[in-house]
Design a protein that fits this description.
By secondary structure, the protein is mostly beta strands. The chain is 7% helix and 51% strand.
């Protein structure tokens, strides 16, 4: 209850503000489909087409259904996308995967780009830390494009693409909506949501759309009392000042302003600006030591928090050049994340194993506590431009093509702090930094792309596509200890004066670039307007990058070849879609923590994924049922050795076997499925509904490497049930809902603060064993929400 009054006060303020913004006039419904996803118009092929007419595996969830499924954030929508898996340790830092294409990446700032591209309308918004955690309100739809999308979407759409499409300004009238929600999470605190939008028709050719939201998520992880004694110094540390119940709460607020102007009958201009701030406190993981799991509890010795701020501005111009469509679009994204992280496990286990506590002393030479914590500041700048043209959609020969440019810069700043250490062992120019990372990473992409479709007959269509691309990626700056001082390791030696502001010198300056081509072939046969089959051979890629450890060369691109057969059919109220596929993943960018906790990335092998996806829907007389499932058999096809080089094998000295051929890829379960049933019925003059949703996630490896997976443990399968009941009038609705009704303890991620072979404590130096952090799904959430249209 400690924050409920603040939530209600803030919610009330937003509702009042939204009401003032909503001008009087005819009350119109917001842009939405009627909940029937069969009728959704998607832009997966960068043309507007009905979902059932696009010959590729697409899941799409429209405005109204997003609301029905209680979708508020990225994690909520993923559970209803059978081909997609999510891995996250906290809000704002999620990694998503399609069809099992995951190797257990640690998402380090200097490591590989994601395998899945994320788009906000026309703009790619994928950053190295993962997808933006956008509050899901006033979205026209979410599109999940499974399989390589490289020809049209390029880099980091190797395994698939997720598109978040916002509702456009509407010139048909002035209308709006306000909504509020109050909720309570089991074993935790209260939360709430306030959100609203107004669509104002400025003229018959111009409209403005303003959207705003605020959400408070109550905490449910307790930081419980604990203490530890560092062996070398005998100094005892406790966390009394940080003990707190439900301390992992979060606040998310933001707004979007979009303008639509029809310059004439052919040309439209749409500028948009969107911003969000998300503040979290505490840890979202429960602690596991040895065989003991502290359910929804942890013992943290240093403050943990994050503030994620981002601003995105974009401009899209659409028009006609003769009978051809032309689109010119560009945008800029700025993001800043400030993170506090506990790192005391690292300090404790390295002291217990190697006596590292003897290296931490003050200016008097007296030992100090080796307790460490991390203060991270990451700044991102991302700009893009795309221009494309498309021939008439009803022509027998159709073409779409264009050019693309993107530049993303990541200013990396991480302070590893040990309080009160001597000046001689702290990194120059810092306060108590035992280690500093201050680097500038720049990833550049250039491409020309096109797809050509030819109707061989009125039922048979052949499509070919390609993309010529160039990437040019660099990493410059400083990382390491004070040298001379704490370490004599030459990897930290200065090579020149500081290039990146805030660094003492430069000991890292690397660059890698390459040019290549990828392709796509598709053959589609339409038996009837409601039934088609297709076969696709496509390729996706992920650019190469830099290994910051001096002894390691840059890593190259990896590619994914997709061989897919699919079908889309509708028979009156029944929809049945599916796809079977094999994906060959070559030159996999495998990343893991090496010595000194530095990420190492190697093109270390090949993998094969064989799978099937099914989507079944039925809708009639107020009753609907939708079921989706995926099965993926994903495994590596070559031994994974510590040194990835064809000239070596896993029997060479120093090149141990990390995982044998046939090992399953981590993170993604073999089976994932969901069923949603809904019945709508009259209640007097109102419309009522009741809805059930069941989601199942199968067991998953936590790590590709055999020994580390045994330490961390296999993630168990889990099932969740959601329920809602509500009523709806012409201009208002109310709903009572529960997510994770039976309070499942499903785990979506597990990790340690340092090397698994150290903090995982395989040598048994601690009486309780290693310390692992398991991120559970949110416990049962019960809520009441109401909304009013104007």
């Amino acid at each position: 209850m400690r924050k409920i009054s603040a939530v209600l006060a803030r919610s009330g303020a937003m509702l009042l503000g939204s009401t003032i913004l909503c001008t009087s006039g005819t009350a119109l419904a917001q842009q939405a489909n009627s909940g029937n996803d069969d009728d959704i118009v998607v832009t997966a092929s960068k043309r507007e087409e009905n979902l059932q007419d696009v010959p590729m595996a697409i899941s799409a969830i429209g405005t109204e259904r997003l609301d029905e499924l209680q979708v508020k954030e990225f994690q909520d929508v993923v559970k209803f996308l059978p081909s997609v898996t999510i891995q996250t340790a906290a809000p704002g830092f999620a990694q998503v995967y399609f069809r099992g294409v995951a190797s257990g990446e640690n998402a380090n700032h200097s490591a590989s780009l994601p395998t899945v591209g994320t788009y906000l309308d026309e703009m790619p918004v994928t950053t190295i830390q993962g997808a933006l955690d956008i509050h899901a309100y006033d979205l026209a739809r979410v599109e999940a494009l499974a399989g390589p999308q490289g020809t049209l979407y390029g880099a980091s759409s190797m395994a698939g693409t997720i598109k978040l499409v916002t509702n456009r300004p509407d010139t048909s009238g002035t209308y709006g909506e306000i909504g509020a929600e109050i909720n309570s999470v089991a074993h935790g605190d209260f939360g709430g949501v306030a959100e609203g939008f107004v669509n104002a028709a400025l003229s018959d050719r111009a409209a403005l759309r303003l959207v705003a939201w605020y959400r408070h998520d109550g905490g449910y992880i307790d930081n419980i009392p604990g203490s530890r004694t560092y062996p070398t110094s005998g100094i005892t540390q406790d966390n009394a000042a940080l003990v707190e119940k439900n301390y992992n709460d979060a606040d998310t607020y933001g707004a979007r302003l979009a303008l639509g102007i029809e310059l004439d009958d052919d040309w439209t201009i749409r500028p948009t600006i969107m911003s969000q701030i998300q503040k979290t406190h505490g840890s979202y993981a429960q602690e596991r030591s040895g065989a003991v799991t502290r359910s929804l509890q942890t013992v943290q010795y240093n403050p943990e928090s994050s503030t994620d701020k981002w601003l995105q501005a974009a401009l899209t111009i659409e028009g006609k050049i003769g009978s051809w469509d032309a689109t010119v679009t560009g945008g800029h994204l700025r993001r800043k994340t400030d993170v506090e992280s506990d790192y005391s496990d690292y300090a404790y286990f390295y002291d217990a194993l190697y006596g590292s506590g003897a290296s931490f002393y003050d200016n008097n030479g007296d030992l100090v506590s080796p307790n460490q914590y991390i203060l991270g500041i990451d700044r991102y700048k991302k700009s893009f431009f795309e221009a494309r043209i498309a021939s008439p959609a009803d022509a027998r020969v159709r073409f779409i093509g264009g050019v693309f440019w993107q530049r993303q810069a990541h200013n990396i700043e991480q302070h590893y702090v040990v309080d009160d250490i001597a000046d001689s062992i702290q990194v120059p120019g810092t306060v108590d930094n035992i280690w500093l990372t201050k680097q500038l990473r720049v990833d550049r992409d250039y491409a020309a792309f096109g797809e050509l479709s030819f109707d061989i007959t009125d039922k048979l269509t052949l499509t070919g596509g390609g993309r010529v691309y160039k990437f040019d990626n660099s990493l410059v700056g400083f990382f390491g200890y004070n040298n001379p001082g704490f370490s004599s390791n030459p990897v930290y030696a200065c090579q020149g004066p500081a290039v990146v502001a805030g660094s003492p010198c430069t000991n890292l300056d690397k660059r890698t670039k390459d040019t290549d081509f990828i392709h796509k072939l598709n053959l589609t046969y339409k038996f009837t307007p409601d039934a088609l089959v297709y076969a696709t051979w496509s390729r996706g890629y992920r650019p190469g990058g830099i290994n910051r450890r001096g002894s390691l060369p840059p890593y190259g691109s990896d590619t994914l070849d997709n061989y897919e057969f699919g079908w889309k059919t509708s028979w009156g109220p029944v929809r049945f879609n599916g796809a079977v596929y094999q994906e060959d993943w070559n030159n996999i960018q495998l990343s893991f923590l090496g010595l000194n906790g530095l990420s190492e990335i190697r093109n270390a092998g090949i993998a094969r994924i064989r799978g099937i996806e099914l989507d079944l829907g039925y809708r009639q007389n107020g009753f609907s049922i939708n079921a989706g499932m995926s099965y993926n058999d994903a495994e590596i096809r070559r031994d994974f050795c510590r040194i990835a080089n064809a000239a070596f094998d896993c029997t060479t000295a120093g090149n141990s076997l990390l995982a044998p051929a046939g090992t399953g890829l981590p993170v993604t379960p073999k089976f994932k499925g969901n069923v949603v049933t809904r019945y709508e019925f009259p209640v007097g003059d109102l419309g009522g509904h009741v809805q059930f949703a069941v989601n199942h996630i199968g067991k998953r490896r936590s790590d590709l490497r055999t020994f580390e997976n045994e330490l961390k443990g296999t993630l168990k399968s889990y099932t969740t049930v959601d329920f809602s009941i509500g009523v709806k009038a012409e201009s208002w609705k109310a709903e009572l809902f529960a997510t994770n009704l039976f309070d499942s303890r499903g785990i979506i991620n597990t990790g340690v603060q340092c090397l698994e072979t150290t903090c995982g404590d395989p040598d048994g130096i601690s009486s309780t064993g290693g310390v692992f952090y398991d991120t559970p799904i949110k416990p049962r959430l019960i809520g009441l929400k109401v909304s009013k249209e104007f």
